[in-house]
Amino acid sequence: ADTIALPTTDELRTLARTSLQRCGVDPAVLDTAGVTNTVTARTPVTGDALFDYPAAGAADVEAAIDAAHDAFLQWRTVPGPVRGFLIKRLGELLTEHKEDVANLIGIEVGKIRSEALGEVQEMIDICDFAVGLSRQLDGRTMPSERPGHRLMETWHPLGVVGVVSAFNFPAAVWSWNLALAIVCGDAVIWKPAQLTTLTAAACSALFDRAAKESGAPANLNVLVSASAADTQALIDSPKVPLISATGSERMGEQIAPRVAARFGRAILELGGNNAAVVTPSADLELATRGIVFAAAGTAGQRCTSMRRIIVHQDIADELIDRISQVYRRLPIGDPFADGTLVGPLIDGKSHANMTEALEQAVAQGGQILAGGRRRPSSDNSYYVEPAIVRMPTQSEIVKDETFAPILYVLTYDTFEEAIALHNDVPQGLSSSIFTTDQREAERFIAADGSDCGIVNVNIGTSGAEIGGAFGGEKTTGGGRESGSDAWRAYMRRATNTVNYSRELPLAQGVNFA
Ligand code: UN1
Fold first, then answer.
1. What atom of ligand 1 comes closest to residue 462's alpha carbon?
2. What is the pLDDT of residues 148-161, one digit of tens each?
């Protein structure tokens, strides 16, 4: 194959600088001469370093906790709808700077243009949602068993929320948490992936501007671009009642017990091993399109990326043939170029993981039907052909999440078998079924169907809208973010019993006179 044509690192560097500046990041911070703690910003597009950026250390994280806590103490008494103004302004600024933020996402993650813009759109959408929510932070009123009494619940701001985000959605995942936390009266400390420190800086600058313009206190969002080692205080601090963390299962295993040990709350968004069941009645043309976007899109680097197909044996060959044909002509390359659908992997480690997984799959009886090779580009960039691998059984490697575009194909005979295979993995994030048989579709979304947090019919596993609650079960971690009533995790509930009578009847008929 021809060598992939890439922009120069200098071009990307210039674009990163101007995008940062337009979002309100002081260009002086880019002069890191004499700064001891820095992180090197890189781009997977060429694989090169862009420039050094100031990082936060352990002491900064400690200071951030105090600063955010002070901001929370002021913010919690500001009425919800007034808190909404700040998020409304943030949504406007994100709309105005959509291109700039998308540039940085494209540079740091290698997302294709429409997906980078889509990520910023997802941020604008959650801001809209949160603004509406700021007038709907409602509690219930229940009938009291006692005369002259009222029983109700009120929802109060919780405190400082620690947001730990991953490289692959470097801006949107923060915004899902931040927009809800802010309208709920909380403050946020944001620890982004160090791979996406520039995107985080730009988003935080836009937030700071929105806060200033809407008269909100400073430090409602404190960015700490620190290493995991330097972020320990955030995980352990009793001043941080909620940690919302997105990343690997390994990261979740490290964080969750420590948050639990101090009786903190955690929202965990960890691995996915998302599958599509494709039944004999499926519209195969539509299924192919849905599968290819979910499996090859974002170079397989979404937590919702499709990693498995469970297809009925009678249609397996036809479906595989259709997908392989599309895979063979997928435009792989410079994510900034028009027409590209598959950009680079994030780094060499990710490529090594993909290669290793493919080797293991073959060792476990798999047959690579398409893709899997690295396309020639620059030395440090990793552009790969998304792979399809037919597996004889759901062996060990299929049960692992490899964060790269590998799609394992398994076949089934009975529908029961399909559901059993579907659920027989440790993870439980997203799932889908392609069928035109209503019985199968309903069964898949029923209690004894898919065991995932997201269950789709006739669309792929990725690309969820913000209006629904986002998250999954089992090793995915159980957290829910974004829409529906996910906001409740960002508040504390108080149950109130109010006696407006002149008597003092006791509950349960207790007599204490
Ligand atoms: C993630 O990959 O961490 O549903 C989030 C989706 C996107 C979010 C993915 N809305 O694919």
1. 11
2. 999 999 999 999 99
